[in-house]
Design goal:
elongated; mainly alpha; 2% strand; 259 residues; 8 helices
């Protein structure tokens, strides 16, 4: 019996949707906001499917004829590569405040206050979680997440299926942005670190001039108080640097997609 209920075009459209969801899902998995352990996988799948529906309606992206063949699997691997790269660039920008918090917390003696970071599932100092919250709020307030989604959608024009190899130049560009992230982390931590250095020098001089003073009982509270005061004074500078870092993340993502 050769019964045809007309499900052939529907099935083809379903496999096209799944193929488009591959790049979007990989990008959301690698991104810091959408790929965190606090977000259930079902939510990420629903979000990727919602974006994929719009891409299927706006563009003429077609899935390979045989998705489970060698050529089809290579196309899927290329989609995953592009998606992970777009998400990884965003992940690098969110690592700068965490590195700065590690440096500042070490000088303040706050690295002893360690808790499980819900965004990454790993242990992180309390100061690092504070910096991450500030980075996330500023990133969302600027609407940078919407610009990032727009770049993911535009990536289908720059890297259509079958032409997804980024090349050595774009990989070097991503590595260059990682080095810029380290510079930004040092810039964030530098004002507070200088204040903590002065506090440690003063406590060291006091401990040498008055040996009866306990260095640990004097230096640790002085470091914490000095670090908190320095963080309060450097808050406007930290905000400006985070705003610039969010803009640089979007700029680096657009540069990776540049033809």
């Amino acid at each position: 019996m050769n019964l045809d209920f007309g499900f052939g075009p529907l099935e083809a459209e379903f496999w096209r949707l799944v193929f488009v969801m591959t790049r979007i899902g990989a990008a959301m998995l690698a991104a810091p906001l959408f790929g965190t352990a606090a977000i259930p996988p079902q939510v990420r799948v629903i979000g990727a499917g919602a974006v994929a529906v719009m891409i299927c309606a706006w563009t003429d992206v077609q899935a390979p004829a045989a998705l489970l063949s060698l050529a089809g699997l290579l196309s899927v691997a290329g989609e995953v590569l592009v998606g992970l790269t777009l998400g990884f660039v965003l992940q690098i920008s969110f690592a700068a405040p965490v590195i700065a918090a590690e440096v500042i917390g070490g000088g303040m003696g706050m690295n002893m206050a360690v808790a499980v970071d819900p965004t990454s599932g790993t242990q992180s100092p309390a100061l690092g979680q504070y910096f991450m919250v500030v980075m996330t709020l500023i990133f969302l307030a600027l609407g940078a997440h919407l610009q990032w989604f727009a770049l993911v959608v535009d990536s289908y024009k720059v890297f259509p299926p079958g032409h997804t190899w980024l090349g050595a130049e774009r990989f070097a560009m991503v590595a260059g942005f990682a080095s810029q992230m380290f510079v930004t982390a040092v810039t964030i931590a530098l004002p507070v670190t200088l204040v903590l250095l002065v506090v440690q020098i003063v406590t060291g001089v006091l401990s040498r001039s008055a040996p009866s003073l306990n260095l640990f009982s004097l230096g640790l509270p002085a470091g914490v108080l000095g670090g908190i005061a320095a963080l309060m004074l450097a808050a406007p500078v930290f905000t400006d640097l985070v705003v610039q870092l969010s803009a640089d993340a979007i700029t680096a993502t657009s540069q990776v997609m540049r033809k």
